[in-house]
Design brief:
This protein is an alpha+beta fold. It has a single domain, classed as Chitinase A, domain 3 (Roll), CATH 3.10.50. It contains five helices and eleven strands, in the order αβββαββββββααβαβ.
């Protein structure tokens, strides 16, 4: 009886030890994944990046990125100078943002909500390739990603409208939630329709997995995005 009791105690101790080791290994693995992500972002920022389509054509000339702090960004009137390829780095999220065009119309104010159309290209930084885009018409039936977005005291919430439109992001990832990183520009851009020589908003982002779509979040990888944003009629 005593022998059996001892075996049970030993088994329980071993089980606890293995569970603890597994948990530690999992944490270490995640830490390693985050480190690889940081290395990938740093490499992307430091090299002269060009993004190619399947036919070998350059679709986005990213260039070598010049990171600036939030304080510099604020001093510049919340602008990024494209001639020196500036991207502001948000310390709380790790997102890099370049405002290529502020856009037309007006900013979304507190208490307002709108439907906005987003043309996007998503580039997987770790795989060095375009992963998803709605800039390409598929069988003459384009995907149109429309976000229903609201501003509550400067906090933006949004979801992809999958009822009235064919959302490429939803079709790719099966999730109507808009990546958190996509919402950051809305504090700084204007939402309207193109009029004359005035052009709609255009931004570029580097989004780490914590601010990204569900697959990036689950598999720990960063993406570069180019977004063109306008108000839905």
């Amino acid at each position: 009886m005593r022998k059996t009791l001892n075996l049970i105690i030993i088994y329980a101790c071993v089980s606890i030890a293995l569970a603890t080791l597994a948990a530690c290994s999992s944490d270490e693995t995640y830490a390693e994944q985050k480190e690889r992500e940081r290395d990938a972002i740093n490499s992307f920022v430091g090299r002269d990046v060009k993004i190619y389509d399947a036919d070998g054509n350059v679709v986005i000339d990213v260039g070598r990125i010049n990171p600036i702090s939030e304080s510099t960004f604020n001093e510049q009137g919340c602008k990024t100078y494209t001639e020196s390829n500036q991207y502001v780095v948000f310390g709380s999220t790790g997102v890099y943002m370049q405002i290529v065009r502020e856009g037309v119309g007006k900013r979304l104010e507190h208490g307002e909500s709108k439907s906005v159309l987003v043309r996007y290209t998503e580039f997987n930084i770790m795989r060095d390739s375009i992963q998803s885009t709605n800039e390409i018409t598929v069988n003459d039936n384009p995907y149109v990603d429309v976000m229903d977005i609201a501003n509550t005291y400067g906090t933006f919430t949004a979801s992809f409208n999958t009822t009235d439109y064919r959302s490429k992001m939803y079709n790719t990832y099966g999730n109507a939630s808009v990546p958190s990183g996509w919402l950051i520009p809305f504090s700084y851009i204007r939402i309207g329709r193109q009029s004359g020589e005035e052009q709609i908003a255009k931004v570029r982002l580097i989004v780490p997995h914590t601010q990204g779509q569900s697959d990036a979040s689950n598999n720990v990888y960063p993406c570069f995005y180019e977004l063109k944003i306008q108000e839905v009629r």
